Amino acid sequence: MDLWPVLSKVELFEGLTPPELTDVARICTQREFRTGQVITIQGEPGSELFVICDGFVEVVVNPSGQNPAPRTVVHLGRGQLFGEMALVDYGPRSATVKSIADHTLIQAIDRDDFNRLCEANHHLGFIVMRNMAADLSFKLRHYHLTGR
Amino acid sequence: MTAIYKVSYVVVGETHPGAILNTEHKPAVGDHITLGGREFIVLEIVDLMPARGEFHFLHATLRPTPA
Predict the structure, then answer these.
(1) How far B2 CA sits from the closest chain A CA (Å)?
(2) Separation CA A1–CA A54 (nearest Å)
(3) A134 in contact with B at a CB cutoff of 8 Å?
(4) Closest partner residue to B21 among A14, A72, A76, by Cβ?
(5) B10 and A14 in contact by Cβ < 8 A?
(6) Could you report the per-residue pLDDT of A81-127, keeping only the tens digit for each?
(7) Checking CA distances to A49, which of A68, A88, B13, B66 falls within 20 to 30 Å?
(8) Chain A within 8 Å of B38 (Cβ-Cβ)?
(9) Which residue in chain A has the smallest CA separation from B57?
(10) Which residue from B32, B38, B13, B4 is spatially nearest to A7, judged by alpha carbons?
(11) Distance (Å) from the C-alpha of residue B45 to the closest C-alpha of chain A?
C-alpha cells in the first residue's frame, strides 16, 4: 500500500517534505480493527502512536476515586492520532481506545523507531513534535467546548 | 492544494461525547452529518484556530435530527 497519499493528509505530518514522509511511511505498521476490538487499555504500558486512516475509535476514561464509572470522552475519526501521550511521556496509557466501526484502519508507529527518525532528522522531529502539540491543544479545546 | 478541515463536533442537548475528524468538505450550517450511525444537523460553525498549510481547524455544534 502506498502510504504517501494517506500520510500527506494527516495533520501530524503537515510541513514534512516528500522524502521525509517516505521515511515516516517506512516505520508505519498497518492494523485493521473490527467494531468492539480494543486497541489500547488504560493503565497498561504503551510504546506506540496510532494514526487513524479510516473508521472510528472511541476513547474511554475510567476515573479513579469516587466516580469509577467509565466515561467516553470523544470519538476520533479519519486523520486523528491517539497514543501520543504514552509515546512522549513514557507513562501508562491514559485511556482505553476501541474501534467503533468495522474495517478501522490504523497506522502504528513504534516509539523507538519514531525517536530514531527524529534524532536523525531534526527538521522532521521539530515539525512532528510541533504538530503533536497542536493536536493536543485541539483536543483540549474540543474537551473544553463539550462543557465537561 | 486540497483543503482539509479538521472538525471538532460537539453535540448539544444530550451526553454524546462529540467527535474529531478530518473532512475534505467544509461543513456548513444546516448540513446533515452522520457520526457513529446517528444523524445530526449542524447548528453553528466557528474557526477554532488559524489555518496551517492546507489544514483548517473548525468547531461545529450539532443536535440530533428528530427520529
Answers:
(1) 9
(2) 14
(3) yes
(4) A76
(5) no
(6) 999 988 889 999 999 999 999 999 999 999 999 999 999 999 999 99
(7) A68
(8) no
(9) A138
(10) B4
(11) 13
pTM (2 d.p.): 0.91
What class, spelled out in words, does domain A4-141 have in CATH?
Answer: mainly beta
Which grid cell sits at A3?
A: 502510504
Of A9, A10, A142, Cβ closest to residue B18: A142
Q: Are B27 and B33 in contact (CB under 8 A)?
A: yes
Integer CA distances (angstroms), A55 to A12, A17, B7, B13, B31, in order: 18, 27, 15, 25, 21
Nearest to B10 among A11, A134, A146 (CB): A146
pLDDT single digits (tens) A38-91: 999 999 999 999 999 999 999 999 887 666 788 899 999 999 999 998 888 999
Name the nearest CA neighbour of A84 among A2, A3, A11.
Answer: A11
- Is any Cβ of chain A less than 8 angstroms from the Cβ of B3? no
Question: Which of A47, A43, A41, A42 is CA-nearest to residue A29?
Answer: A47
Residue B27 in this model has a pLDDT that exceeds 90: yes
Sequential DSSP letters for B17-58: --EEEEESS---TT-EEEETTEEEEEEEEEEEEEEETTEEEE
Q: How far apart are the first and last CA of chain B?
A: 39
